[in-house]
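[Solved] Which block belongs to which protein?

Original post:
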Amino acid sequence: MSDREPYAFHVMTKPIGPICNLDCAYCFYLEKEAIYSGNRRWAMPDEVLEAYIRDTIAATQTPEVAFAWQGGEPTLLGVPFFQRVAELQRLYSDGRPISNAIQTNGTLLDDDWCRFLRDEQYLVGLSLDGPRDLHDTYRVDKQGRPSFDAVWRGLELLKMHEVTFNTLTVVNRANSERPLEVYRFLREVGSGFIQFIPLVERALPDAGPHGLASPLAPGDAVTEWSVRPEAFGAFLVRVFDEWVRHDVGKVFVQTFDVTLGNWMRLGSALCVFAEECGRGLALEHNGDLYACDHYVYPEYRRGNIMEASLAQLVRTPEQVRFGRDKRDCLPAQCRSCDVLHLCNGECPKHRFQRATDGEPGLNYLCAGYQRFFRHVGPAMEAMAALLRQGRAPAEIMARQRDADRAALRTVGRNDPCPCGSGRKHKHCCLRSTP
C-alpha cells in the first residue's frame, strides 16, 4: 500500500478481557488473566471506552468505521454497556457510517439482547462447532457441563428477532473427522456465512514469567485437541466439494471466498492469507494495545491508548516490522512453493515446524493447505474465468454436476466411490446417477 492510500487497520476489542462464562478446553485467551494478575475490575472503564471510540473514528481513513467486540464473552457486560457504546459512537461519528460486530458464545442472549442487536444493526458471530456431540466435545461451562442447548436457544432468538449472524467453527481434532456433517448442520441452521478456524495450540511446558507461552518459545508439540494438518486439508476438500456442487452464491465460506480473491491476485481480505499482516490488533479492557489477538503477550504490547493515540500505536516501528516479518521470514521451502500466492505462509503463530532442509518457520498446517489449494485449483480457475466474463461464479455448479455424471459412468459398481465416502460406488453416488 502506498502512503497516498488510506491506512486501513482493524482492532479486535476485548471490553471484558479474557473473562468468560464458558471454560472451553481449547480456549487460548482464558490464560490472559495471568497478564493482569490481581485485577479486580475487568469491565472496560468508561474513560477508556470513550477514548477508544473517539480515537478509532479519528484514526480511521476508510469511509466506514468498523468496531469488533470480542472476549472472553462480551455479553457478560450486559446491554447497558453497549448502549453506552452506541451513544459514544453517535457523539463522535460526525455523520460517518459506523458498523459493529460482536462475537459471542450465544449462551447469554435473550430478547433484550436480540432487540438491541437488531436495532443497532450488529453483525453477530456465533461460535458453533457443529452438531450437539461435536460442539460439546470441548465447549463446556465452568462446571464442565455441555453448552449446546444454551447456544441453540441463543441461535433461535437471533433468528426470531431477525438479527444478522454468521457462524465461527473451530476445526479441532474431533469435528475435523466429520466435515460434511458439520457443514450440512451449519447450512441447515441458517448460517449463510461460515468461518472455519483451524485449532492449532502448542503444548509448551515452559509457560514463561507470566504463566504464558510466547509464540517465540521453542518446541513443535501440539495439544491433543489441535487439528492434524492432513485432517484439516481433508476437511476443507470435502466441504469444498459439497459447496461447489450445491451452494455457490448461497452459502459463503470465508476460506473459499478468500482463496478465489487470491487466485485472481486481488489481495486477501483475511490477514492469515495476506502477504503481510500487522493491521489487525487487539485492545484489552484497560486500553493496552497488542500486535494481534494471538500475540497478547507482554513483549507484543504496543502501548496504552490513554497514554498515546491509537493512530500512533497502530503504526509503531515495532508493529510495522511485525507485519512485514510475515513476508520476510518465510523459509526457502515456502518461497519456492507453487501455492505460495494463495497461502502466503498462513498465520505466523503456526510457523513452528522445520522445513525439509531443517530451516525453521514452516507452517504446521502446510500439508493440509497444499492439499486443499491444489485440489480446488481447476474450480477456482473456472470461477475466476466466469467473473472475468461478467458472469456469476454459481454457474460452475451445473458444470460440475455434468462432469460428475460423466465421470461416474466409468466407475465400476463395486469400485470405491470417487466421492471419497469410503463406500462402494453402488451403495453411494451410483444411486443418484441418472
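(Second protein starts here: sequence line, then its C-alpha cells.)
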Amino acid sequence: MSKVATRFAPSPTGPLHIGGVRTALFNWLFSKNQNGSFFLRIEDTDKERSKNEYKDQIIKSLKWIGVNHEGNEYIQSEKINDHINVAKELLKNGFAYKCYCSNEEIEEQKNRAKQKKIPYIYDRKWRDKDENEAPKDIKPTIRFKSKIDGTTTLKDLVQGDIRIENNTIEDFIILRNDGSPTYNLSASVDDHQMNITHIIRGDDHKINTFKQLQIYIAMKWEVPSFAHIPLIHTKEGKKLSKRDNASTLDDYSKIGVIPEALRNYLLRLGWSFKDKEIFSKEESIKYFNLEGIGKSPSKLDMSRILSMNEHYIKNIDENELFNQFTKYCEVYKEKIPNEKVDKIKSSLMFLKNKSKTLEDIYKNSKYIIQDKVSISQDDIKLIDEKAKKIISEFSNSISKIEKLNKENLEPVINDIIKTNKTNFKGVGQPLRIFLTGSKFGPGIYDIIGSLGKEEVLKRLGMKIS
C-alpha cells in the first residue's frame, strides 16, 4: 500500500467556508495519524470567478487554524494540458465520444425533464452516431461513455456500501466545446498525478465520485479510497451556506475566537472519541480516525463555540493568551501602547474573567489601554447628587492611603455604604463609571489596583457637565 496522501481542494471563488475548513482538518488529521502527507490543491480553472484574494484568504485561514500542507500549493490551472491529454486518450480508446448537440437542444431536453418532474439525464444522442453525420457549424463537447448496465458499489469509509444503478449516471462532459476540461476530469487527473490515496470530502460529492471512479477504471489507474462526510447544517437544520453569518474563519477571528478552540470545536462537529471533549493538537492527531465520523449532518452551534472558546481563554498559558490578545488588538482594534503592556499583562488574570472571546477581554481592558475615559449619556444619568457625594468622599479617603489594595479599600467602602445608607452597588457603580467609562466591567478592587492611586484620583476628579 502506498504512503497515505490526502488533499484539500477548494476553489478560490469566495472566502473559505467553515464546512471546507472542517473537511481540510479531517484530511490533515487523517494523514498525520497515518504518518502520511497532506496537500493543498487550488482548483482555479473557473477563470471568471477565481480570484487571488480568495486564494490568499484560503491559505491564510488554514495557516491560522493550524492546518499546514506539504510543499507548495498545487495549482490546478497549471495542469490543464494534462487533463486535456487524458480526455483525448479516453476518446481514442473508446471511453468517450464527441457530442454535437447544440445548447438549444440541451436546454430543450432539460425543460422536458423539468415538465415531467424527473432529473435531467442527457439522452446519449451522439453516443453511437457516426461522426459523418456531425453538423459542420457546431464545436463538439467530449462526453465520457458511462456504463449503462448493472450497478456500481462504492465501499465508502464513512457511509458504508453505497450502491447506484449505472444507467442513472449520465454521459457527463469531460471537455467543453471551448476545449476546457470539466471538474470531474480535472479532479480525477490531479488526484492520480498527486498519488492521493484517500479522498475525504463532503457527501454532496457522492455522484461526482461515481463519475470519477469510471475515469479511474477506464484509465487503469489505482483507485483511491473514498470517505464522504455529512455536511454542516445551521441550527435550524438547513445546509450552511456562504451567505450565513459566521460561515467563514474571518467571522470568528474578528470576534476573538482562538484558533485552537475553533479547531477543537470543528474536530468534535460530527466526530467523537469516547466521551472526550477537549483535545490538544497532539491528541487530535493521535486519536483521529474515520470510524469516529457520524453519518448524520452536524449543526453549527455558536453558543457551543463560545463556550469552548471560554474554556481555552481560562486554561491556556497566560503568556500565550497575552500574545494572541495583542495580535488580535493590533489587527481588529488598536495597538496596545508600549507603556501599557506590562499593566495589561499583570491584569490579564481578572480581565479574562467571564470573557468568552478576545473581544470581551478588549472591552474589559479598554480603560487601561485608553487614557481618556468617555462616559455614555445613559451612564451619566446614573450619576445623581448622591453618587457625586459618594465619589467625593471616596476620593478624600483614599488620598490619605499610601497603597491601594483590597485590604485597605474594603473598610473605606464599607464606611461609605454605612454613612450613605446604600449598598455595595451604590458605591461600586459610580466608581466603575468614572474609572472605566461603563457600568459593566471587572470588579472595582481589580480596576483600582490596576490603575494605581494617582490615575484613580485623576479620573475621579473629572467634572460632570
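Accepted answer:
You had them paired correctly. Confirming on the second one: Residues 51 and 223 are 32 Å apart (CA to CA).
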